[in-house]
Amino acid sequence: QVQLVESGGGLVQAGGSLRLSCAASGRIFSINAMGWYRQAPGKQRELVAAIPSGGSTNYADSVKGRFTISRDNAKNTVYLQMNSLKPEDTAVYYCNADGTYYSGMYYHPFTSWGQGTQVTVSS
Length: 123
Hints:
123 residues, 7-stranded mixed sheet, 63% strand
């Protein structure tokens, strides 16, 4: 099937920057949308940003103007550039992708999640 591996999380001071990466691997036929979600302690998982295979990006209001999502289709990789980080951005960030994978002669839809990467912003 399809696996997502994230990297780039860590500890940063308020006002700093981090760049997250998420690479998809496996029997990928095509990837539609890719996105980043986050979950803070005691809160529900929320969409941070999403990018379809072709079209406009989508951001949560809380990150507009500070975060930028991009993707490299040749590498099946999505990125999240996070600038002007705030303590309220502290969360586990998850990568998500959906598309089609192949198995033998057959094609199947998939939705996959990464294992999550911790982002901590200190004040």
